[in-house]
Amino acid sequence: MSRIRTFVLAGSVFAISGLMLVNLPMAASSDPNAPAKPGFARGRMGFGFFGAPLITIALNHKSELNLTTDQVTNLENIRSHYQSQVTPVQQQLSSIEKEIASLMQQTSANLVQIKSKLQEAEKYRTELRYLRIEALENGRSVLTDQQKEQLKTLVRSQHGRFRTPQGQPS
Predict the structure, then answer these.
(1) What share of the chain is helix, strand, coil (3-state, %, to 5)?
(2) pLDDT tens string 57-87
(3) Cα–Cα distance between 143 and 154 in angstroms, integer?
(4) Alpha-carbon distance 8 to 14, whole Å?
(5) Cα 112 to Cα 36: distance, rounded to the nearest angstrom
(6) At what angle do helices 111-142 and 2-29 cross, to 10 degrees?
(7) For the chain, which residues make up each domain, given as ranges?
(8) pLDDT of 96-132, one tens digit each?
(9) Would you call 141 exposed, middle or buried from its count of C-beta atoms within 10 A (0-12, 13-18, 19+)?
(10) Which residue would you say has higher pLDDT here, 145 or 163?
């Protein structure tokens, strides 16, 4: 019986330690006074160079991409709509992460409550990811195939330029 009790206690300590290690960087980096920073479609064709969203890159290079005024207006509307949707979701997620950090600081952490908050946070992360994908797809639909290829080339050339070690030909 004592071995089982020791095993359960050790397992609990290990699980709590793991949760603390995973959440500590998030809790440490969260600044309650920092403004919410909406992300954008990460992953394949999501971010361009320097982590900039592709819609922003396209708008910054509208002349190279030969964007029409309608395309510029549509991309600006997509970006504005995305940001207005993301801001409240990110604020909710930030609030939940702070609650999780607070729960974990208690001497006797309530694992059921922490698990519930983690599941709630995942719902918001899923919503953010979907909103990114939706904005990216809406942005893609505005561009012609040629403009999409030009944008890919632009992003690749900028990305490669900043990844090349100094002294190496680019």
Answers:
(1) 75, 0, 20
(2) 899 999 999 999 999 999 999 999 999 999 9
(3) 14
(4) 10
(5) 28
(6) 40
(7) 2-161
(8) 999 999 999 998 889 999 999 999 999 999 999 999 9
(9) exposed
(10) 145
